């Protein structure tokens, strides 16, 4: 079964404490992406990766990092989280016109 | 700037009535168009897409959408709404010539279907 798996699903953390949200896909897709969803703003792209070791900024990259050391994994890293990064995060794995989304990670930074 | 507009934050419909969730877009070229649905505490689920061909596209759960190039619209429709259709709906476009995953999303429309 085609799957995009994100972990954790829920996370509450404190300002400044580094965290990583993992994303893994089993479809051998080259393209992966991270989005954040905020009320009234829809989904906005944070970073994307077109292949292993190839990443680029999306529309709202500030405060985030990513890495793509292997095709299946695309972790999102918050080196020093701040309250304005409280949001719902989605990882997506895409090939052609097909996009598969993870279940989401609800992050709260206090 | 390229954008997707969903003019209604919320749409309220009685069960059994037809529903329409509106979407208009502003992009250059001939975009690919998508609808996704998000149920509470769930991820995004694909409903349907328009790539080329027939302007009326049929998708999952009885939904359909009509592509109108002259009005740059891609409204989502269903002839008879169900209470279980209540969810958040997102319209998205993929910009031609851009990175393959560059989906631009609307802000979402909350659909509420009452019994």
Characterization of this structure:
- The complex is a heterodimer of chains A (110) and B (115).
- Chain A is an all-beta fold.
- Chain A is 0% helix and 55% strand.
- Chain A is built from no helices and 11 strands.
- In chain A, the strands form 2 sheets. In chain A, strands 2, 4, 5, 6, 9, 10 and 11 form a 7-stranded mixed sheet that branches. Chain A has a 4-stranded antiparallel sheet with strand order 1-3-8-7, with no helix packed on it.
- The radius of gyration of chain A is 13 Å and the shape is globular.
- The model of chain A has no long low-confidence stretch (mean pLDDT 95).
- Chain B is mainly beta.
- In chain B, 0% of the residues lie in helices and 51% in strands.
- Chain B is built from no helices and 12 strands.
- Chain B has strands spanning 3-5, 10-14, 19-21, 24-26, 32-38, 44-50, 56-58, 64-68, 73-78, 87-94, 103-105, 109-114.
- In chain B, the strands form 3 sheets. In chain B, strands 2, 5, 6, 10, 11 and 12 form a 6-stranded mixed sheet that branches. In chain B, strands 3-9-8-7 form a 4-stranded antiparallel sheet, with no helix packed on it.
- In chain B, a hairpin with a 5-residue loop joins β7 (56-58) and β8.
- Chain B starts with a strand and ends with a strand.
- The relative contact order of chain B is 0.33.
- The A-B interface holds A 4, 31-33, 35, 40-45, 48, 50, 56, 90, 92, 94-99, 101-104 and B 4, 6, 9, 32, 34, 36, 42-46, 49, 51, 90, 92, 94, 99-103, 105-108.
Structure characteristics:
A: 110 residues, mainly beta, seven-stranded mixed β-sheet, four-stranded antiparallel β-sheet
Q: What is the helix content of chain A?
A: under 10%
- Termini separation of chain A comes to 37 Å
Give the rounded overall mean pLDDT of chain B: 92
Number of strands of chain A: 11
Runs of chain B in which pLDDT lies below 50 for 5 or more consecutive residues are none
> pLDDT average of chain A, as an integer?
95
Shape of chain A: globular
Structural class of chain B: mainly beta
**Number of extended strands of chain B:** 12
Number of helices of chain A: 0
What class do helices, strands and sheet pairing of chain A give? Answer: mainly beta
Number of continuous helical runs of chain B: 0
Reading the helices and strands of chain A in chain order gives EEEEEEEEEEE
Overall shape of chain B: it is globular
Terminal CA distance of chain B reads: 40 Å
Rounded to the nearest angstrom, the radius of gyration of chain B is 14 Å
Task: Please report which band the strand proportion of chain B falls in: under 5%, 5-15%, 15-25%, 25-35%, 35-45% or over 45%.
Answer: over 45%
Largest sheet of chain A: 7 strands, mixed
Strand content of chain A: over 45%
Rounded to the nearest angstrom, the radius of gyration of chain A is 13 Å
Biggest sheet character of chain B: 6 strands, mixed
């Amino acid at each position: 079964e085609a799957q995009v798996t994100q972990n954790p699903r829920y996370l509450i953390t404190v300002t400044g404490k580094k965290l990583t949200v993992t994303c893994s896909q089993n479809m051998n897709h080259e393209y992966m992406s991270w989005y954040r969803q905020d009320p009234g703003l829809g989904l906005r792209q944070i970073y994307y990766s077109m292949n292993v070791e190839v990443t680029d900024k999306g529309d709202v990259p500030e405060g985030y990092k990513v890495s793509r050391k292997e095709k299946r994994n695309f972790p999102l890293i918050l080196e020093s989280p701040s309250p304005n990064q409280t949001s719902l995060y989605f990882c997506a794995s895409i090939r052609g016109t097909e996009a598969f989304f993870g279940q989401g990670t609800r992050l709260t930074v206090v | 700037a390229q954008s997707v507009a969903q003019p209604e934050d919320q749409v309220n419909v009685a069960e059994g009535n037809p529903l329409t969730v509106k979407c208009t877009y502003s992009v250059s070229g001939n975009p690919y168009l998508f609808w996704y649905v998000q149920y509470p505490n769930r991820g995004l689920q694909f409903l349907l897409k328009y790539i080329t061909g027939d302007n009326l596209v049929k998708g999952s759960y009885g939904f359909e959408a009509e592509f109108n190039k002259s009005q740059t619209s891609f409204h989502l429709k269903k002839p008879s709404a169900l209470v279980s259709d209540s969810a958040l709906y997102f319209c998205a476009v993929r910009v031609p010539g851009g990175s393959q995953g560059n989906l631009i999303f609307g802000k979402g429309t909350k659909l509420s279907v009452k019994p």
